[in-house]
Amino acid sequence: MVHSDSYPPLLDHYGTLLSRGSSQIDEPRTRVTMEECQLPLIDLCGLTSADETVRRACADAICRASSEWGFFQVVNHGISHRLVEKMRSEQVKLFQAPFKTKAKSGLLNNSYRWGNPRATCPDQFSWSEAFHVPLTKVSDEACYGEFTSLRNVMTCLAAAMSELSRLLARILTENLGHGKQAMIDNICDETTCFLRLNHYPACPISPEMTGLVPHTDSDFLTILCQDQVGGLQLMKDSKWVTVKPNKDALIVNIGDLFQAWSNDVYKSVEHKVVTNATTDRYSIAYFLCPYYDSLIESFVKPSIYRRFTFREYRDQVQEDVRKTGYKVGLPRFLLEGSEENTRLYTPSITATS
């Protein structure tokens, strides 16, 4: 690992955590071989086809992947490769800034995060840094300081990801029936949606270190733009599998709210990011969220979840993490008589929204 003033104190903090156990920080690193998977790949050109059969087949593929995988890839998604490359260049410059600048200068709504300073054991620690920016602040000039060229690129990317997320969400809600496709536009707003810029520094110290700890996302859906370094893993058929990067594709995953809304038709799948021994990794994630007081209620009946608001859900997640270090998530909101379903869930450490 290259040491410079741009890096957050990941090594110091992780070393302190390791000193509480039997692991040694100078153990040789060995690569852990994981099965590699090809996520369902969906060409969104099908949605604008003049042929109704083609449009329907494309929408069906989105819904099927959301049910069977909880993850899928999209190409011809309308976000230009040039815009993504410009954003990546600006993102690298941002994370190369001195640590004190990132942490103390109020950049991007003072949203800088690194690792997990509150972690009490290595399993709760993420070898990464990020800016988790509310959409309401993306265009705010005051948030950018010396990084003036970042603002225009980030504003364009946020708008494009927002449009794409709503398109996909409408398809998923329409598939649930009952004329609910318009609801997603009524309850989702930029006041609660986020854009997250991630940086995973090279980490040669441990093959067990995660860049982002296992978690599910507490939103409707997430759109991820990642580089070609790789490292994303998801839980499939009770085992971790590695997602092979595709330079032309964006990754979409279902969040907890869509799982509850669909009464488990769509799956919010546990995922994580593993570190790379020699190479930094960058990614950008867009989180589609509702108003905090929006009511989350299953479309499909009989429901296995009780009604709850997004605010209530977030508060419960944060309380669980404060008390135990782990996110429980949806099992907290199962209706009486559905308790047997809790055994299907493994508590995960929260890592995002």
UniProtKB/TrEMBL annotation:
<comment type="similarity">
    <text>Belongs to the iron/ascorbate-dependent oxidoreductase family. GA2OX subfamily.</text>
</comment>
<dbReference type="GO" id="GO:0046872">
    <property type="term" value="F:metal ion binding"/>
</dbReference>
<dbReference type="GO" id="GO:0009685">
    <property type="term" value="P:gibberellin metabolic process"/>
</dbReference>
<keyword id="KW-0479">Metal-binding</keyword>
<keyword id="KW-0560">Oxidoreductase</keyword>
<dbReference type="InterPro" id="IPR044861">
    <property type="entry name" value="IPNS-like_FE2OG_OXY"/>
</dbReference>
<dbReference type="InterPro" id="IPR026992">
    <property type="entry name" value="DIOX_N"/>
</dbReference>
<protein>
    <recommendedName>
        <fullName>gibberellin 2beta-dioxygenase</fullName>
        <ecNumber>1.14.11.13</ecNumber>
    </recommendedName>
</protein>
<dbReference type="InterPro" id="IPR005123">
    <property type="entry name" value="Oxoglu/Fe-dep_dioxygenase_dom"/>
</dbReference>
<dbReference type="Pfam" id="PF14226">
    <property type="entry name" value="DIOX_N"/>
</dbReference>
<keyword id="KW-0223">Dioxygenase</keyword>
<dbReference type="InterPro" id="IPR050231">
    <property type="entry name" value="Iron_ascorbate_oxido_reductase"/>
</dbReference>
<dbReference type="Pfam" id="PF03171">
    <property type="entry name" value="2OG-FeII_Oxy"/>
</dbReference>
<dbReference type="GO" id="GO:0045543">
    <property type="term" value="F:gibberellin 2-beta-dioxygenase activity"/>
</dbReference>
<dbReference type="InterPro" id="IPR027443">
    <property type="entry name" value="IPNS-like_sf"/>
</dbReference>
<feature type="domain" description="Fe2OG dioxygenase">
    <location>
        <begin position="189"/>
        <end position="290"/>
    </location>
</feature>
<keyword id="KW-0408">Iron</keyword>
